[in-house]
Amino acid sequence: xxxxxxxxxxxxxxxxxxxxxxxxxxxxxxxxxxxxxxxxxxxxxxxxxxxxxxxxxxxxxxxxxxxxxxxxxxxxxxxxxxxxxxxxxxxxxxxxxxxxxxxxxxxxxxxxxxxxxxxxxxxxxxx
Length: 127
Known about the structure:
The chain is of the alpha/beta class. It has a single domain (13-115), classed as Glutaredoxin (3-Layer(aba) Sandwich). It has helices at residues 19-27, 42-55, 74-80, 106-115; strands spanning 13-16, 31-37, 64-69, 87-92, 95-101.
């Protein structure tokens, strides 16, 4: 007999972007990070390392990081309005809260994650 136990999330979740993942994050009002990247980009890999470190913290356990392959998924790149790889877009509930391009320092990435927190006010979409 198998016993299923619900275990609360202890870390943010990483997954490739898909319609299903996007819709689920929006419906749940989860803080969402879109990481537009290339697999071998130096900046992209540095950003990924910082995001992985931060997502391991309990404060970011409800977040989802949807990874977008810049070269392999041009439709998603266009939908997000990303112009280049190494772009991190922060949102919640379909609202674009902020974005950075090329930032790899933990303080900058952390500050935008905090603005995306479930209890943070959402003022307006960023253009």
